[in-house]
Amino acid sequence: MALIDINKLSYKYAGSISALESVNLTVWPGEFLAVLGRNGSGKTTLFKLLTGILDIQEGEIKMGDTPLDDISKRELHRRIGFVFQDPNDQLLAPTVAQDVAFGPANMGLPKDEIFRRVQQSLAVVGLEGFEHRPIHMLSFGQKKRVAVAGVLAMEPEILILDEPTAGLDPVAVSDLMKLVLRLNQERGLTVIFSTHDVELVPVYAHRVLILERGTMVLEGNPETVFNNREALRQAGLRLPRIGHLFEVIEKHHGWRFHDDIPLTIGQAWRTLLYTGTKPQKRRWRKGYTTGSCAAAAAKGATALLLTKENLDKISIYTPSGVMLNLGVHDCIVGNHTASCSVIKDAGDDPDITDGIKVFAQASLAEAPGITITTGEGVGTVTKPGLAVAVGEPAINPVPRRMIEEAVRSVITADQGINIKVWVPGGEQVAARTLNPQLGIKGGISLLGTTGIVEPMSEEAFKNSLVPQIKVALAQGEDTIVLTPGRIGQKHAHALGIPEQAVVQMSNFVGYMLDQSVVSGVRRIVLCGHLGKLAKVAAGIFHTHSKMADARLEAIIVEAALSGVRQEVLETLAQCVTAEAAIPVLKEHDLAPVLYKLAGRISARAQQRIHGKLEVGSILLSLKGEVVGFDANALAIGRSKQWYSQLP
């Protein structure tokens, strides 16, 4: 269901100045929507109507099924948070904590809940320790963050920001937009923002709306909107600088590109590397998600049920507005049911679900509407903390919406359809994913926020690790153990650390430390092989060998600082691996060196996160033997009654 539905919305100010003219817009849950337009185009008027600051004159706005006029101002302000362009117009209290507490206090919340929300919101925006800071002593960028924190303390469904980056320097712009993106991705917060900075839009927004003299003149994903160059310029806007550069290259240097003009540095890099005509090189092929497969299969099965005609292909629209034409297989139609499958194609991404078949069956229901159930190979959520409730099928919100929209496109409003989705072999595939760690049992998850699989995306893999932290917190674990992979995970369990507290971080030590801070974790233990974690002592927070490798150097430096003899240091320097250094140290009764190294690793990790969390470290051999730990790790474990086998 749409989160906001705007129908023929018009507004005139005194003197018959028309600010909006018959605007129609649908906003979906979890969207990141950008509103562009020159000064006076109607952006702020639209926001003021959405937030109840202005009364609706003509047309209608609905939140879900409820007209905005039927929602009290108090309830509306709780559900929709509005951050003004100038924070000085929004911040009224003398101190930071008092201002952030203003909204929750007006909601009548208990003092302890107000305190919790203030602390949590300030932590999210990176202003811990600012509680008693006078507002007038803050920088403009800090005031913006306080304004955002005040809105977040109300725990809204929608965050609306009017020119959020106006008046900020480039670093502050980047920091603020990354914060808003994190809220969108990790909390599922729907974001609507207006801006004159077209550079931001293709980097952050899923969809773009352009207003001109109160009328909506363009709408779609950033690629579609910005490649409509004539209409864009008629609206007083320009291409992002990267796009303009490629436009000039096309016009004056004879280059031709197979796709739309790139809008970001990443798109430009891929275009130049893989699709430039001088010379032509390989272009990485995109794929589509399991969510897209399920939506296409559901639409195909429904069409087959209603028409009794076999299909070769079915078309669906992704959340970003891209149309996919997917092949349909295994079509079976009976009197009361029909089913078909779509084969997952991950493009050039090394996706473990590539090639699986996603099946859907459609049957008529007595009541209007769409019901979705699952069968073999689709997992069930068993742990809290994910975007899907415990006990429900592991279909994330965006794929579920895609299925509903795809089916709705081939039925009438008074028809009802039951959809069942299943994936043969899904349980075996899921065993090689993070699903067991996340508490998703029995099969794969139907995933995807865009419907498209971007090849070779390290960022996507990093993002897939973060839900483990959410699951741990939801189960009451404010202390987590970060391990590099499954081996470290197994050895952590052997030490007596509970399963729900163990989180895989792969090579992304720094990233997962940062995400732990943002998510509200209180304490961390790094537990893993000496060869991985020793790199952290040298300040290396991406531990893949292609990035940097100083594991032996870190061990040797610690040994030298401990007064180890020259000949032993030379022997250590001859070791090919960190594992080989362990028996050398034991032979010379130098095991304490690795305990000191564990302390240095923890200190480096705490420097990375500016001391916001307590960090301890446990070092393991390949056999799972504990070869070093520091006082922090020992204290954290004892307070949690862990470490049944720690020396």
What attributes characterize this protein structure?
647 residues, alpha/beta, Rossmann fold, CbiD-like, 6-stranded mixed sheet, 5-stranded mixed sheet, ABC_transporter-like_CS
Structure commentary:
The protein has 4 domains: 223 residues, P-loop containing nucleotide triphosphate hydrolases (Rossmann fold, 3-Layer(aba) Sandwich); 45 residues; 167 residues, CbiD-like, CATH 3.30.2110.10; 179 residues, no CATH class. It is 38% helix and 22% strand. The protein has 25 helices and 28 strands. The strands form 8 sheets. A 6-stranded mixed β-sheet has the order 6-7-8-3-9-10, sandwiched between helices. Helix 21 crosses helix 24. It is globular, with a radius of gyration of 27 Å.
Concise overview:
With 647 residues, the protein is of the alpha/beta class. β7 (158-162), α6 (170-187) and β8 form a beta-alpha-beta unit. The model is unreliable at 276-282 (pLDDT under 50).
Question: What is the CATH class designation of the largest domain?
Answer: Alpha Beta
CATH architecture of the largest domain: 3-Layer(aba) Sandwich
Helical/strand content category: alpha/beta
**Residue ranges: pLDDT <50 for 5 or more in a row?**
276-282
Give me the Rg, rounded. 27 Å
Number of domains: 4
Report the count of strand segments. 28
In the CATH hierarchy, what is the superfamily of the largest domain?
P-loop containing nucleotide triphosphate hydrolases
Mean pLDDT score: 88
Helix content: 25-40%
Distance between the termini: 56 Å
| Basic shape | globular
Describe the main β-sheet briefly: 6 strands, mixed
Number of helix segments? 25
| CATH fold group of the largest domain | Rossmann fold
Beta fraction? 15-25%
Q: Strand order within the widest sheet?
A: 6-7-8-3-9-10
EC number: 2.1.1.195
GO molecular function: ATP binding; ATP hydrolysis activity; methyltransferase activity; transmembrane transporter activity
Family: Belongs to the ABC transporter superfamily. Belongs to the CbiD family.
Keywords: ATP-binding, Cell membrane, Cobalamin biosynthesis, Membrane, Methyltransferase, Nucleotide-binding, S-adenosyl-L-methionine, Transferase, Translocase, Transport
